[in-house]
């Protein structure tokens, strides 16, 4: 179960320099399956950082949240596949056509070029947005309703899953079924500080609620002993996975 847990643990590489990112991968790759590269690190380091992570034993979740016209997002996502990432995401607010075109372009490219086909994830409503934020842009519906609506739209467009806060996981699981992947940040083990996260869950609670992958940053990065912190999270995840399998 520890290996199954490792494959579901994603460490957020929230650093601005490629050397620091690569040091984290060297330290953590035996406990963490995927490393999340976001806009800051990618913009600073360029696409070579994906190779840098992979050469050190990590796989990559490319968290660039593409949102543009369908052709542009489809082409950008194809380039992410060529870099060899395992997960990549787009904004569901870009619409069904944008997601459908992306799914089609990625499937075709991965088939013809014999590439690994990454999980295609959608971001629904950013957790930094609240009701007021939606009203400001003319969306009158409640946040939870929009989250579920966009998750359904993503699934119908052929996307493989979504990124969602722990609080949203049960709603999305219910609406989109067991096969739809849910990646959850805002995870805080009992030993860690809450930081600026508002809607948090422990690793075990997030998995029990139906999450498939957990994104963890500061509880590992800011621990006195990051490897020990990662190992403790893995053990908690492994126990929760064993429990879920029994249930
Ligand atoms: O340090 P922490 O564990 O809070 O890091 C969580 C990571 O997940 C950060 O990279 C953060 O930007 C990202 N994230 C999040 N909430 C979302 C989407 C992404 O915390 N809704």
Description:
It is a single chain. This protein has 247 residues and is an alpha/beta fold. It contains 12 helices and 8 strands. Strand 3, helix 5 (70-83) and strand 4 (87-91) form a beta-alpha-beta unit. It is globular and about 45 Å long. The protein starts with a helix and ends with a helix. The model has no long low-confidence stretch (mean pLDDT 97). The chain binds cytidine-5'-monophosphate. Residues 12, 14, 38, 126-127, 163, 165, 185-186, 195, 197, 215-219 line the site of cytidine-5'-monophosphate (C5P).
- Low-confidence stretches are none
Bound molecules: cytidine-5'-monophosphate
Roughly what fraction of the amino acids lie in strands? 15-25%
The CATH architecture term is Alpha-Beta Barrel
Mean pLDDT: 97
Radius of gyration: 17 Å
Order of helices and strands: HEHEHHEHEHEHHEHEHEHH
Largest sheet, strands/sense/barrel:
8 strands, parallel, barrel
User: Strand pairing plus helix content: what structural class?
Assistant: alpha/beta
The CATH first-level class comes to Alpha Beta
The rounded distance between the terminal residues' Cα atoms is 15 Å
Number of domains as seen in the coordinates: 1
Compute the number of strand runs.
8
Please name the fourth-level CATH homologous superfamily: Aldolase class I
């Amino acid at each position: 179960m520890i290996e199954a847990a490792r494959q579901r643990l994603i460490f957020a590489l929230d650093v601005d320099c490629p050397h620091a990112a690569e040091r984290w991968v060297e330290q953590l790759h035996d406990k963490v399956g995927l490393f999340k590269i976001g806009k800051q690190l990618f913009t600073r380091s360029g696409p070579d950082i994906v190779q840098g992570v992979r050469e050190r034993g990590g796989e990559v979740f490319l968290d660039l949240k593409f949102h543009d016209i369908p052709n542009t997002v489809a082409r950008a996502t194809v380039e992410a596949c060529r870099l060899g990432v395992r997960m990549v995401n787009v904004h569901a607010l870009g619409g069904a056509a944008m997601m459908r075109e992306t799914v089609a372009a990625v499937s075709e490219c991965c088939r013809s070029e014999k590439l690994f086909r990454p999980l295609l994830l959608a971001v629904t409503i950013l957790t930094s947005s609240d009701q007021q934020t939606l009203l400001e842009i003319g969306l009158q519906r409640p946040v939870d309703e929009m989250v579920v609506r966009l998750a359904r739209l993503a699934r119908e467009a052929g996307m493989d899953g979504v990124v969602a806060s722990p609080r949203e996981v049960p709603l999305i699981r219910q609406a989109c079924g067991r096969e739809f992947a849910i990646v959850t940040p805002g995870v805080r083990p009992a030993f860690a500080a809450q930081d600026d996260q508002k809607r948090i869950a422990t690793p075990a609670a997030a998995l029990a609620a139906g999450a498939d992958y957990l994104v963890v940053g500061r509880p590992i990065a800011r621990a006195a002993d990051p490897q020990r912190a990662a190992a403790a999270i893995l053990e908690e995840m492994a126990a929760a996975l064993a429990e879920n399998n029994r249930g």
